[in-house]
Amino acid sequence: MKNWIFILILFLLTFLGEFVKGEENGYIKREGVQFKLNGKEFYRNGFNAYWLMSEASYPSERQKVTNAFQEAANYSLTIARTWAFSDGGSRPLQSSPGIYNEEMFQGLDFVVSEANKYGIKLILSLVNNYNDYGGRQQYNKWANLSNEDDFYTNPIVKGFYKNHIKTILTRVNTITKVAYKDDPTIMAWELMNEPRCSYDLSGKTFQDWVNEMATYLKSIDPNHLLEIGLEGFYGSSTPDKIKTINPNRYQFGTDFIANNQVPAIDFVTVHSYPDQWLQNASGSAQLTFLQQWVNQHIEDSQNILQKPVIFAEFGKSYKVQGYTQADRDQFYRIIYDDVYSSASKGGAGSSGLFWQLLSEGMDNYKDGYDIVLKESGSLGKIISDESLKLSNL
Asked: Structure pTM?
């Protein structure tokens, strides 16, 4: 009799485990200003770890990826944003247009597979605005173009980029045997990391590119969410906010409102780096700016765009002059508090992804914004407490 009871308990535990796993494994969807997972509201914090594919391409280094995901899960971090690109250079994913390094691709396969094991949803970015990991400049070199903003208009370069989109989305994972476009471990695709188009500040060139590429990507994969990768700078559609909200009245040919109104774009992103944008301002002035920056973007996402907003990169460097741990802790609290305040009312504020998470022993990746959770002290407690609170909504 006892054996039957034991078998029954084991069966029920197994069934419950599979049920919970199934609950976590659906596609993230967007309904109005909210994300939904299997019909339930999905408010979660997360992190950036651009290095995941690169490190995982070396089998001997894959434990760093596993450790990062395991630690993140322990701190209630559920979303990871990372690169699905590495163009040209000494160890590329794409060595030349349409030619891919299988070792690097298998590294990305491992990242996707391992994320699923730890309940991590991925946002995969498809190209860089900057020269790191190739970026727009490498695409232009392949087409023998000198103007970096030709990336947005030249038909040859656009063809190269579309081919990369298709290659990534249709990749069949060598570990899971599931095509990326069919894998709900992936939360969303990102068109570009921090896109800018400085030669056309009107925004028309970049707007046309977003329309074209978003439509193309969705024609291949209608199941996953899509975002642009914007920093959040306002453009010509809201000239008053260029003056009052953009730091130093920055303009980069992008437009937070107009770009995100493209129908194929499912949610919006904002990056936050006052210590880069306002280098001569005091720590308190930077925090004051941050509060306005965050509140304005949540308000506009809620009322104008009517789409969820993720604060997809934010951080405060310990390497800048005048740095204090108290300012850094407060920096994180502002973003987490404002996201939670919106989310608790069913609003557009959905998530904060800090830059950047490292595993122990990754000193070569330290940039001043890095966080090793086990070594993060008071900030680690803030991250854990706030992320658990958000996930319990």
From this structure: 0.94
